[in-house]
Design brief:
Distance between the termini: 15 Å
Helix content: over 70%
Order of helices and strands: HHHHHH
Strand content: under 5%
CATH topology: Four Helix Bundle (Hemerythrin (Met), subunit A)
CATH architecture: Up-down Bundle
Radius of gyration: 19 Å
Length: 157
């Protein structure tokens, strides 16, 4: 296996690490949801919507990882000829969504947890709670776009 392929696979692995942040963020929101549900102050549906939000970063990272692995032939079984420079470029393409995905998902989990607390205390505040949590999503989307644009600019032989 060439150095280029190994570097590209490392880039895919870094992109997939966004799932770490999603797991933490969903966990944080889930803890808050469990706490308010024990007092029966909020509906399951409202808390579930907020808990699910930090999971999107993991999806964005997975998409970039699959795209990278497909481009170099790791998925599909026909490895491409990937130079060290191309592999390094694909590694770098995985970094924005990998790192920002981790950090934004954790932050979004905290915002979602706060939103769950808001929903448990005030009726009719679910929309506002979602908006606060979704604001954090903006940065994950921007990181996804950067990773996607970087990936798109790399041609592999």
């Amino acid at each position: 296996m060439s150095t280029g392929i190994v570097l590209a696979i490392l880039g895919a692995a870094i992109a997939a690490c966004a799932g770490i942040g999603s797991a933490i963020g969903v966990g944080l929101a889930g803890e808050a949801a469990d706490g308010v549900m024990s007092g029966d102050k909020a509906s399951f549906g409202s808390t579930l919507v907020l808990q699910a939000l930090p999971g999107t970063q993991g999806i964005y990272g997975l998409v970039i990882a699959i795209m990278i692995m497909t481009k170099v032939g790791v998925l599909g079984g026909n490895l491409a000829s990937v130079s060290t420079e191309q592999g390094l470029a694909l590694l770098v393409a995985g970094i924005p969504i990998g790192i920002i995905g981790i950090l934004s998902a954790i932050s979004q989990g905290k915002a979602a947890a706060a939103g769950i607390m808001l929903v448990s205390k005030k009726d009719g505040k679910l929309g506002q709670a979602i908006i606060y949590a979704v604001m954090v999503e903006t940065y994950a989307i921007l990181a996804f776009i950067v990773s996607f644009l970087m990936y798109s600019g790399i041609s592999v032989g």
